[in-house]
Structures are given as C-alpha cells and as structure tokens.
Specification:
Number of strands: 20
Strand content: 15-25%
Number of domains: 2
Structural class: alpha/beta
Organism: Stenotrophomonas terrae
Helix content: 25-40%
Shape: globular
GO molecular function: oxidoreductase activity
Radius of gyration: 23 Å
Protein name: Dehydrogenase
InterPro entries: Amino_oxidase (IPR002937), FAD/NAD-bd_sf (IPR036188), Zeta_carotene_desat/Oxidored (IPR050464)
Number of helices: 16
Length: 425
Amino acid sequence: MRIAIIGSGIAGLASAWWLHGEHQVTLFEANDYLGGHTHTHDVEVDGVRMAVDTGFIVFNALHYPLLTALFDELGVASKPTTMSFSMHSARSGVEYNATSLDGLFCQRRNLASPRFWGMLADLRRFYRDAPSLLSEPEGPSLGQYLLRQRYGEAFVEEHLLPMASALWSSPTATIMDFPARYLVQFMANHQMLQATGRAPWRVVEGGSARYVEALRRRWQVEERLRCAVNRIERLAHGVRVHSVVGIEDFDQVILACHSDQALALLADADRSEREVLGAIRYQRNEVVLHTDATLLPRNRKAWAAWNAHVPDDRSAACTVSYCMSLLQGLPGDTPLIVTLNRSDAIDPAKVLRRLQYAHPVHDGSAVRAQQHWGELQGRRNTWFAGAYWGWGFHEDGIRSARRVVDALRCHTPLRTQQHHAEAIA
C-alpha cells in the first residue's frame, strides 16, 4: 500500500520505521528537520561546540520500554543523567533542591521555619494518601482535591504546582484543573510517589537527534521536508493529500501531528472526529536556549536539572528552566539553560535560540477524549497517532504509533498482506 504519514514527531517516525519494509511510505513534515519535539541544536559556547536539546531529553528503560527497545535496535548510545528538582519562589524568597539534605536546606533559615517543615509534612502525606484516588473512577480536579484535603499553601504553591507545571509545561491554573486521579496515576507509574528505588534516567549521547539520524540511515522512506499538508480528503478507496507540492492519492493516511492540527486538515471531518479531536486543547510555550545563569536559583547548591520558578505575581504562571549542562553532562563552566515562558527575564545577549512548541492540556475533557481512541482509528482509511493519546511524553507518542501500526496491519486485506510478503521475499 501507499501510506502517507503527516508529521515527523516520535509517533510519525516510529510509524514510518515499523511500516517502511512492508509498504511504500511517504513522510510529510512542514519543518526543515525531522523530529518534532526531538530538537537538537549545535551551538558554540566559550569556544566549545555542543549539541543541546530543547525538546525531548530524558528516558528510562522501565517507563519508556518501547522507546528503549527502538534505541537498542538502532544501536543508539545513551548515558545516565540526573532528574534533580529545585524551586525558587520570588514571592516568599524560599528556594531548595529536593535531591539532598544539603540542597533541601541550602537556605539554613529553613531549618527553623515551621512553614517549610509543614511543606515537607504535607509532601509525605500526599505521597501516602494520594494513591487512594486511583480507586475513584472519575474523582475531583487537583484543585478540588487539595482544598478538600486541606493541604498547606507552601506545599501547593512551592512544591506540587511548580513540579507539575515543569512536567507538563502548563500554567498553574491549568494544572489545578487536571483530574487529580490522572496526575496521581502518572506519578505512581513513574515511581514519583516513592522516595527511593526509582528507575535511573538516561539521555541520548550527543543529543536526542542522534536517534533520528539512525532511523534515516536505515529506512526506505520518502521524506518530504518543508512540505506542509494543507488538506486531506477521504475517497471511496483511499485518501487524497493536498500539500505544497500538489495533490496525491494514497491508500491510507496516518495523522501523526497534534490533534488540533489533524482536525484542521480534514476537509470532511465527521461528528466523532470533531468531538474527540476537538476536545483536546494545546498550550503554546515559548522556549529559549540561553546561558543566563540568573534564571537558575540564587544559591548554587539549589541548582538542579529541573528548576521551577514561582513568580511574585499570583496571577502569573510558574515557569521552568532546565539546566542542560547537568541533564546532558555538557562541558564548560557556562551553564546552558532551556527556559519556558520567561523570555523577558533573559539577557538578550545570552540567547542562543528562540523556539515555539505546543503541548496538550490534560484537563477533564482531554482525558475523556482519550477513551475514544479506537472509535476513530481506520475509518475511511484514516489513523491518528500522537502523544496526546497519553500523558504527552515520548513514550506516549511511540505507544500510540505501535497501536496504530498493529491495528493497520490487521485492517489490511489479506490479499494485500500476501502481495507484500511475496514482494519482500
């Protein structure tokens, strides 16, 4: 079959990889690079050239089994990293690094702070009690749950919300609307509700784009870079793709772009597609790669891989700065930092790259929409893959691709499967 794949994030890449040996695959990508949120930049700092990631960064074998298997198959090298977390509040002046006692109490005054000790007590209580939410079929929003359980302001505003905002690149108000059960399920699945025994995290040697390069060296896929798709029509026996290079017909199409982009491309979207895909909203985030260390905590003992910042203005969102020097083990004394949605605070002379990414918003309507995954797949020769079907992370994207590829293979008429088997033999 001729299969069009729209979008080259992890869902599109994995779909192309698993299908290219059986079918004629054409991969459409509007950008000038393949990878989507796998985005590595070659920069020079203090006379040293380095590859720095600004999108996908970390994985581990336990929670990213499909991605790890793909890396192993491709021979992609990786190395251990740290997933340390820090918080600095411009509102209260408190900052800490949760990794060690010295980092936790890097501000020695916190040893005598009832508020700080109350935050730690609430943290232990949350870890102990929150798993009870997993037995509730729907349950409250995170904001409702925290209010109902009377968690203190310090724990909510200086730990849980900054941490969740960093994980999902979402504003505080959006995080409070998350279904509490959904958040706790993610934390439980990733061993974040336990203090010890967590799976070790890793990064790709030389930047995440190395795995994209490994795919491209080994597959037989027609790549269409800088080739935006404008419209998709479903035909009686296939699909018609309108792109910047013209109009082409395919047997099947996999929309491996964001759900809102997929819906916008469908010229003849039906009611189910509009309701399910339209229920998932996106948060646009401005991402800056830079070397301005003032975006990290003031006390160097508090510097961590993930550095959350709570603004003085209560109406403003928490932001995060990733210390890529720690995460990727980069050389040199000048820290390389990726900051989201706090561009005005960065010294323009220290900016290396400015980018825009969009991340799915995991509110109640999005979580409910995910339950209808199977209702959309394969109808009118159209398939939908993307991290938005899960928690929005790399493993969610590759898992969605695996499900689509498996379902598409079952969907393929037997005579077509036999034809391709004979052609390969």
